């Protein structure tokens, strides 16, 4: 039984240029772990990045021209987190999954999804990022995406229980699930997101929220039980690791030049440039030039 519900709206002005951030907390139930849903509109990329922190986003570089605008709906259930995002400008994000968390992402609507490690998701596909994985995700323009976050151990446990077999999800993989399974996953994800955006009381009902969560997990297991999976190649994995270490250096020592960075990484400038063009959509020199001002200006 619910013991209480709270609704809250907050608006914060960022500066004189009206860089505003709006967050609406829809329902907060005070028994057990509280189902929580948040619908937000952002015009400041730093706030957008902060809101995506639970999904492992450590940095966000906006590369498109124009006014930044993004919408984000997030839901926290007992064992899983859901998100739906819509972005207008191209950007590059660096994502580092927590050690106990697995992320599933997929396109929404008719807009492209982010490009993960240089891999473009097509309609009917999903990508899984395992615990501890580090990867860059870029967009080349307006995009829409959905995401599901949960413990890797929990997913493996559910997978074993539902399939009766050992259940292992690769560190990073692109899947082409059976149409019926993907349709169910998208249906339940969309139902939850709409409930949050419409301020439906359904998410404040513990029994209904639990039922929705179980349906989502079952559909997800069906999706990643499919045999049609593209595992990350050794070359792609190696390039991704190079870029993760490159990101570490750029953040920790923003004034290093490309020759010094390559020396620290033990690779050639040509290799670094090729990795950046493949996964970041720009050369290494341009990426460092774009990242440096925000890194130097941080506290």
Plain-language structure description:
The protein has 299 residues and is of the alpha+beta class. It folds into two domains: 5-231, Jelly Rolls (Sandwich); 234-296. It is built from eight helices and 15 strands. Residues 1-32 have low confidence and may be disordered.
> How much helicity do the residues have?
25-40%
Domain module count: 2
The structure class reads alpha+beta
Rg value: 20 Å
Distance between the termini: 45 Å
* Number of distinct beta strands: 15
Strand order of the largest sheet: 1-2-3-5-6-13-8-11-14-15
What is the CATH topology classification name of the largest domain? Jelly Rolls
- Specify the biggest β-sheet: 10 strands, antiparallel
**CATH level 1 class label of the largest domain:** Mainly Beta
What is the element string, with H for helices and E for strands? EEEHEEEEEEEEEEHEHHEHHHH
Mean pLDDT reading: 87
Residue stretches low in confidence (pLDDT < 50, at least 5 long) are 1-32
Beta-strand share of residues? 25-35%
Please state the second-level CATH architecture of the largest domain.
Sandwich
The helix count comes to 8
Spell out the blueprint of helices and strands.
Blueprint: E1 5-13, E2 20-29, E3 36-42, H1 45-51, E4 57-62, E5 70-76, E6 80-87, E7 91-96, E8 101-107, E9 115-116, E10 119-120, E11 126-129, E12 134-139, E13 143-151, H2 152-163, E14 172-175, H3 179-197, H4 206-224, E15 229-231, H5 234-252, H6 258-265, H7 269-279, H8 284-296
Antiparallel strand pairs: 1-2, 2-3, 3-5, 4-7, 5-6, 6-13, 7-12, 8-11, 8-13, 9-10, 9-12, 11-14, 14-15
Helix pairs in contact: 3-4, 5-7
